[in-house]
Amino acid sequence: MSFVSHVECTVCGHRHDPKRPLTVCETCGQMLAARYDLERVKASVSKDALRQRPPGMYRFRELTPLDAGEVPVTLGEGGTPLLALPRLAAHLGMRRLWAKDEGQNPTGSFKARGLGGRRPPRSPRRRSPAPTSSPSRARS
User: Fold this and answer.
1) Full-prediction pTM beyond 0.85?
2) Domain residue spans of the chain
3) DSSP states of 65-130
C-alpha cells in the first residue's frame, strides 16, 4: 500500500485519484504533485529504521509512489553529497550555504532522481509516460 493520499495540481489545487496515470492536471493542464499521508508514514517507520537503511532515495521509499513490497527500478540514484559553500555564503551575507552535488548520480544529472521516482508500468502492454531529458550541453 502506497502512502500517497492524492495527487494535486500545483497551480489550481485540483485533487486527482493517485491510481489514475495522469501527467498533467485535467482541469488546467499544469504540473501535478503527489501528496502523502505523513501521519501514516510516521506511524509505520521509525527514525532508527530509517538510519539502518542504505543511503539513496529509496531510504525514504514511503515517500515514493511505490506500493509496499514493490521493487524500485534504480541505478543507485540519490544519496548525493551536500557541499558547504562558505565563501559564497559570506559574499551573499549568509551564515551558511549548501549545494547538492547531483552530478554524483549514475547519470551525472539531477534528472536521475526524477526518473528513479517513477513507477514502472504494471503491464508490458501499457504505456507509461517518462520524463524526457534535454539535449546534453556537455562537450565530447
Assistant:
1) no
2) 1-44
3) SPPTTPPPP-SS---PPEEE-HHHHHHTT-S--EEE-GGGSTTSSTHHHHHHTSPPPSSTTS----
